[in-house]
Amino acid sequence: MRGGIMIKPEGELKVSFGYQCNSNRDSSCEDSDEYETLPELRRNSSFSCLSGAALSANATLANTNICNGLIGAEILPSWDSPNSFRRVPSSPTLSRLDILSSSLQSSMSNLSCSPSTPDSDSYLMKSMSPPSRSEGFLNAMEVQVAGGAAGEDRVQAVCSEENGWLFCAIYDGFNGRDAADFLAGTLYETIVFYFKLLDWESSQESIKASSGLDLDGSLPYIEDDSNTINEERFLSQIYTDRDSSVDNVSKNAPCAKPKISTDSFRHGVLDSLQRALSQSENDFLYMVEQEMEDRPDLVSVGSCVLVVLLHGKDLYTLNLGDSRAVLATYGDGDFINGSERLKAIQLTDSHTVDDEGERMRVLCDHPDDPMTIVAGRVKGKLKVTRAFGVGYLKKKKLNDALMGILQVRNLMSPPYVSTQPSLNVHRISKSDCFVVVGSDGLFDFFTNDEAVKLVHSYILSNPSGDPAKFLLEQLVVRAANCAGFSMEELMNIPAGRRRKYHDDVTVIVIILGTNQRTTKASTSTSK
């Protein structure tokens, strides 16, 4: 890679991939051994390319044995492609998920993962045919996928350029990689299912609306004097305090009705993401309960979750924990000639005890427990306040599976760690340049502004280079300097021991807009 620093084999990048969208059909360029040319696709996306890279610091087992080894032996290998994107059929069936747990099979039969709306979801399944698995929000005949593991981190990217959407996820595991592996093997497909359910619910709402009845058979809610149905009524409650980030439109404005419908759909997407995460959490903890007799360590295994979904010009984020999505934008000023300073805007919340708001929330949730936060950690164990898994901080019987000093003393009022995600949607504008998506290991060494500046300067000088890999290489340089080593000395320290100097780090850089960096769709193989 031009301008990059070559990492020695002992500490080589565990994951590195790139994808570049095609431009106009009449464009052409020289073939290269670095690229595998793909058929021309209809240009319909809001991103021009992305790159991902990950570097391990923790020593972990190669595969997980959870779910009788099914995830590690069958599901994850079909996802992993650490050196390139590859084409796979879209919308895989949920049959392989059905055998992971009776919890999933049961919940899919009544669709009641959202605690606030069990009656509504149950009614849907009893009275209507189930949603088709051949259609849905993430439609595509084929998709491009890439992903892999670095230490306890998992990274995934799925895109359909022809249909204008991109799904990226970073699962930052801790106390083991089983939770991150479970997410990597199941969450995307669960999200796809709930998006299909969203489409189906919307179509049923339209059918009921045409007959003048609501889903429950009652008269529809009348909004003012316009006789329009409240289209959000079929959606379950969205657990987010960030609704103001959605582009609201005045009801009195021209074409207000279609705008309200679009706004309602965005809320539905956010709700579907939350419901899918809740489903995955329920299924993982069910698995843990089934296997904790043989593997009591599973009750302490967890993961941060960061999902980024770019659909058209809407950029959705879901996060638990301290991974971040940072937008690089010029704001509302003159951004074409670069006269205004590029700004870094964090799109996600940081769920740690260091955040005053999170700290006060946790303390208020447990007013009778004076030991809620000990030594800057939840129950003295965990710095993050929201996470996937970590059942021993959520259920007493899971905590009881641990022995001795591993067990949490005085677990008075679980759960102490929340699975309620932060949700957000940002409307992409011409001012927006790129998004840096990273696990917390990246931000141990770089501020948001520093990460944005490094990526921006690299893209300007290396228009066809790999900004994610470059960012990781700069992190290694900084980590080595902080430790008083040369970069080679640091990277020759074996994984496990090297965790003393830096964490597992995963980075995805998404270049926004339609300015092409290459002239054809391609997959890039890291060398």
TrEMBL record:
The lineage of its organism: Eukaryota, Viridiplantae, Streptophyta, Embryophyta, Tracheophyta. Its cofactor is Mg(2+); Mn(2+). Residues 137-512 form the PPM-type phosphatase domain. The keyword Magnesium applies. Belongs to the PP2C family. PANTHER family: PROTEIN PHOSPHATASE 2C, PROTEIN PHOSPHATASE 2C 40-RELATED. Residues 107-130 are annotated as: Disordered. Its EC number is 3.1.3.16. It comes from Prunus avium. The gene is LOC110746082. This is protein-serine/threonine phosphatase. InterPro entries: PP2C (IPR015655), PPM-type-like_dom_sf (IPR036457), PPM-type_phosphatase-like_dom (IPR001932). Keywords: Hydrolase, Magnesium, Manganese, Metal-binding, Protein phosphatase. Residues 107-116 have a biased composition (Low complexity). It is an enzyme of class 3 (hydrolase). It catalyses: O-phospho-L-threonyl-[protein] + H2O = L-threonyl-[protein] + phosphate; O-phospho-L-seryl-[protein] + H2O = L-seryl-[protein] + phosphate.
